[in-house]
Amino acid sequence: QVQLVESGGGLVQAGGSLRLSCAASGRTSSRYAMGWFRQAPGKEREFVAGISWSGSSTYYVDSVKGRFTISRDNAKNTVYLQMNSLKPEDTAVYYCAASTSSTSWSEAYFGSWGQGTQVTVSS
Description:
By secondary structure, this protein is an all-beta fold. The chain has strands at residues 2-7, 10-13, 18-26, 33-39, 46-51, 58-60, 68-73, 78-83, 92-99, 110-113, 117-122. It is built from no helices and eleven strands.
């Protein structure tokens, strides 16, 4: 398995930006697709964005399209989530996760998870 550590969360005003990072260690030789999820208080965890091993394929949930950008630097074993035009409804704990599937973004395929980083957007 791969170990994941997120960073970059914090408090920001609506309309602001944050960049989350997810550093991987351990079995990084495996070709994992990576994803970002979030969980707001009282809500279920939701998939936010995903990126293939090569970085050539990305996917976003409709609510963040045009505002969030997922990217990765395999040489640094790091995945990023650039979040712009943040809204109060983006407030959540954000998790990165590694997937064993190259064809599905189903949460069932994400077997390694980070501890999460809090993002709070004030109005």
